[in-house]
Every structure is written in C-alpha cells, then in structure tokens.
C-alpha cells in the first residue's frame, strides 16, 4: 500500500510556467522516504473497516500526506526547528530557500483541500463535514507547534507535554481514523472511541520519537540525533528521563491496546501498528 500511495502523490507541473519551483519543491518533499502511516491507516479504515471503495478514497490518501508533508516543511524552517535533514535528504529550505519552503508548505495545504473536493463519490454534505473537520485539525496542529516553540527552555509538566504532543502528533493519527469514519457515516460513539485510541497511540508514537532522538541511529533515522537537546526542547526524555519515558510509552501503548480490544475492529492492522510504534528504529 505504501508503494501505491507513493505513486499517487506526485503533482503535475503547470505547463504555463517554464519553471515551477513550488511544484518542484512539493515533489522533492513528497519523494522523501516517508512512512506514509497516516494514509495507510486511512486506507485500512476506509477499505477494510468500513468497506469503502479504494478508488473512491484515493483523493483522501493524497490529502493526508500533502497535509503531513506541509507540516514537516514548516517544522524544519530556521524559525522553528531549524533542521537540515528530513527523511534522509537535505530539508527543502536548504535545497531552495526559506521563501520557497514557506510557500510550498502553504501550497501543499491548499492541494490537500483541493483533493478533498474530489471525493465526488460521496454525499456533498458529508464531504463538507470532512473539510470542516480537516480545517479544525490543521488549526490545532498549528497551535501545537506554537506550544512546542513556546516551550523551548522551559520544563513542562507531564500534563502540558501530553497536550502539546497530542496537538502536534496525536491529532494527525486521529484524523486518519476519523476522516474515513465521517465518509462512512459512523456514529458519534464509534468516532469518540477512535479519537480516544488515537490520543494514546499518538502520545506513544511521540515518546518513541523522543527516545530515538537520544538512542537512535542517525543513518537509520535519516536526520541528526540529539536535535531536541541542542534546541533545549521539553520532551518526554527531558521531563521523565529515558527509563521514565519508556514506562510512559508502554503505559499509553497498553491503554491503546485495551481500547482496541473494546472497539474490536474487523482488521488486525491497528494492533500491529501499535507494536510497530513502540518497536520501530526510525
């Protein structure tokens, strides 16, 4: 599925423009060795859980990865995390410049919305609800990044850290589960259950990222390790220590696994996904 998603993502150049740095920048960022976790989760939910036609949700898969890639472009900017590498390659602002990176990130967020308007096999009212939800999620992700920037040099409480990391990471997982639920017209109780699962899975994912920044292999991760400490960021490792962060990660893993058993999805993918979150090396 990851290979199929990679084939969906490239954006065609506009013939009217001989040089299109924005499209080139977008495709450069999309070509990186991304995990494609969010669109894969959406595909599993849409096709395997709710029985939606794969051809009908292709725009949704593209939309999620466009939005996620845009968030990474913004995160990497010198004004934010000031990262030089992402997915094993130089970051976009290093290859082009900051202005092109900023405009490319904005371009990708708009392409994401454009793709959602192509969900023409679904009722227009449902698609409008989906777009409204996506807009709110995007706004919340921006708030999460601001919280992260404001936290530099500060020691956050565990509660504050959980809130920040949900907005930065967990809400992206939530969207991957909720958006296909909206298209399938799932009930409020079911949607609430998926949101709760995504909250704990997302925090477990972020804690693993924080641990990899301390213990990971730079060649495997595709970006320098120790970046969080260099930027004086408040992370689960800085707040709880390595062993405390590992315990917190396993606590959220167990809660998410218990929630999954209660939800009892038709497909075992999300159970394997939880195992992957805590055992991955990049």
UniProtKB/TrEMBL annotation:
Q: What is this protein called?
A: Farnesyl diphosphate synthase
The organism is Paraliobacillus quinghaiensis
Query: What SUPFAM superfamilies is this protein classified in?
Result: Terpenoid synthases
Q: Does the keyword field hold rRNA processing? A: no
Name the UniProt key words of this record, in alphabetical order. Isoprene biosynthesis, Magnesium, Metal-binding, Transferase
Q: Name one GO molecular function term.
A: metal ion binding
Q: Name one GO biological process term.
A: isoprenoid biosynthetic process
Q: What cofactor does its activity depend on?
A: Mg(2+)
Please report which protein family the annotation says this sequence is part of: Belongs to the FPP/GGPP synthase family.
- Record's signal peptide: none
PROSITE patterns linked? POLYPRENYL_SYNTHASE_1
What InterPro entries is this protein classified in?
Answer: Isoprenoid_synthase_dom_sf, Polyprenyl_synt, Polyprenyl_synt_CS
Query: What gene name is given for the protein in this entry?
Result: ispA
């Amino acid at each position: 599925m990851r290979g199929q998603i990679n084939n969906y993502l490239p954006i065609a150049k506009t013939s009217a423009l001989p040089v299109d740095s924005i499209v080139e920048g977008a495709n450069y960022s999309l070509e990186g060795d991304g995990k494609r976790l969010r669109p894969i989760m959406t595909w599993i939910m849409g096709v395997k859980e709710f029985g939606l036609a794969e051809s009908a949700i292709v725009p949704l898969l593209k939309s999620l990865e466009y939005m996620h890639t845009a968030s990474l472009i913004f995160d990497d900017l010198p004004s934010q995390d000031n990262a030089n590498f992402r997915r094993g390659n130089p970051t976009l602002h290093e290859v082009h410049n900051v202005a092109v990176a900023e405009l490319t990130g904005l371009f990708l967020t708009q392409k994401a919305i454009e793709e959602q308007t192509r969900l023409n096999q679904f009722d227009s009212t449902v698609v409008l609800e989906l777009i409204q939800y996506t807009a709110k999620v995007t706004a919340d992700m921006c708030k999460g990044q601001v919280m992260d920037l404001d936290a530099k040099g500060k020691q956050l409480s565990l509660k504050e850290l959980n809130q920040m990391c949900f907005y930065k990471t967990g809400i992206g997982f939530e969207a991957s589960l909720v958006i296909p639920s909206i298209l399938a017209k799932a009930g409020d109780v079911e949607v609430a259950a998926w949101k709760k699962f995504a909250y704990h899975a997302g925090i477990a994912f972020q804690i693993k990222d924080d641990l990899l920044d301390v213990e990971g292999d730079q060649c495997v991760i595709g970006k320098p390790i120790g970046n969080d400490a260099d930027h004086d960021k408040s992370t689960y490792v800085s707040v709880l220590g390595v062993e405390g962060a590992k315990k917190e990660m396993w606590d959220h893993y167990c809660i998410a696994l218990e929630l999954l058993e209660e939800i009892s999805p038709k497909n075992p993918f999300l159970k394997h996904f939880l195992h992957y979150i805590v055992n991955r090396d990049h």
